[in-house]
Amino acid sequence: MKLIAPIATAIAAAAFTLPAAAQFAKPEDAVKYRQSALFVMSQHFARIGAMANDKVPYDAKAAVENAEVVAEMAKLPWTGFVPGTDKIGNTKAKPEIWTEQAKFREHNEKLVGETQKLLAAAKTNNLDNLKAAFKPTAAACKACHDDFRNK
Amino acid sequence: MKLIAPIATAIAAAAFTLPAAAQFAKPEDAVKYRQSALFVMSQHFARIGAMANDKVPYDAKAAVENAEVVAEMAKLPWTGFVPGTDKIGNTKAKPEIWTEQAKFREHNEKLVGETQKLLAAAKTNNLDNLKAAFKPTAAACKACHDDFRNK
After folding, report:
1. pTM of the predicted structure, to 2 decimals
2. Nearest-angstrom CA–CA distance, A11 and A14
3. How far apart are CA A133 and CA A116, in angstroms?
4. Which of B43, B45, B48, B78 to mutate to probe the A interface, most A CBs <10 Å?
5. pLDDT one-digit tens code per residue, B54-107
6. CA distance B130 to A140
7. Is A76 in the B-facing interface, judged by CB distances under 8 Å?
């Protein structure tokens, strides 16, 4: 597994401390958990995107607050991808998540790393830095969706 | 509005920086957001509860990790309670949330304050401290549910 950055790897490792299945009372909870964490992240990420794409005025404080939530939320969803939950509810998870675990985790860690950089960029209070960090973060979302999420 | 603790109040104030409605593309997103944040919080809180209630062995590191997520998540749901979203989707939100805003926010801030104390207790690496802090946090959840959530 490629190591993106020491800090991201440490964070991702912490997220994988416990066996994933042991953390959820039932498979439906695991699906709901990962979808919930990803949705909360997406909402805050979209607010940064609106600034990065000049759709709303740049608000440095709001950018940092949103980036903090994004960086925290990015660590969470992965334990929800419990083996055997690719047919539960309305999930779009592809079975490849479980047959290509190393690649999936590489994507997860990539996202965690990019969100850490996004937060660091937000904290510079500079819109150009935010824009520069937004793109690779969005690309990390898309890369994983392309490989591991059904349309 | 009663001030629970300076830190909790500052956090809650930050969460209320922007007009809530302006943060969501549509009312359904606001409902999904608050439900998602509360669900993620509940999952991590339940893991602390399992330790506090002697249902699983005490794991000091896991307690801190879960308490960190709980404390972060506790700040989030409240912006999702956008006026006019008491009949959207499968929400259990009572209309009193919007007619008794001061009381609702007092509940929100109480929860944020208790989750900060829970995190501090977890960081002492002492199960008795965790147990002592778990109860008032659970009570803060219940108090708001009793007043503002339909069965």
Report:
1. 0.88
2. 5
3. 10
4. B43
5. 999 999 999 999 999 999 999 999 999 999 999 999 999 999 999 999 999 999
6. 37
7. yes
